[in-house]
Amino acid sequence: MKEQSIKVAVDAVVLGYKEEQLYLLLVKQRFGSFAGQWVIPGGFVLNGEGLSDAVRREVREETGIEVDYLEQLFTFGDDVARDPRGQVISVSYLALVNPEKFSLNPDTDAIGAEWFPLKEIPTLPFDHTLIVKKGWERLQAKLTYKPIGFDLLKTEFRFSDLEKLYQTILEQPLDRRNFRKKILSFGFVEETGGVSVDGSGRPGKLYRFNTAKYKMFEDKGFHFEIKFA
Known about the structure:
Layout (H helix, E strand, L loop, with lengths): L6 E12 L2 E9 L8 E2 L2 E3 L6 H13 L5 E8 L11 E10 L12 E8 L10 H15 L14 E2 H12 L5 H11 L2 E9 L5 E7 L1 H10 L9
């Protein structure tokens, strides 16, 4: 029997939301066949290291970001030539963060880190374009069975900010009345008692996520049928 030489890596699709756009976090490689090119954060799993620990470490080392929300996405390994360094199986993850909460600080094997509008990302090496596509599809699907926004919006936000987030992810206008009624019925979004003023000078109520209820639905899920305008 031949000795196995397969390596295991982790890769992270790190998505953020700002200025009513979704952004993807990319790092510029310092070494290897694709040195100087933009890739998604990731790297090899160390001996004795768990997968989630490995992906958190790689994101932290290459970007300076401490990831809070993280979920396993997909395993890539059918294409044995996906990595020029040899046969590498990649376990990918989806991470959601608010870009405004972090300063990027690339280190180790990354010489740069930058947020790119999801619709304007450069050509990516390896199979990273496919991995990003899987992450984008997962986020869109999640809206029907998990709450979204805790890791993407500010601590306090206008209800319209949540509507715009969903519309940005789904790329369609919502039936706003139906959306508001259903979201508020779950109880994980609540009024703060404060108000904000938009550019037109019109005051609007501020909302926040009820952390306990949000986490409960995040764990057990729900059925959310989204209607469009």
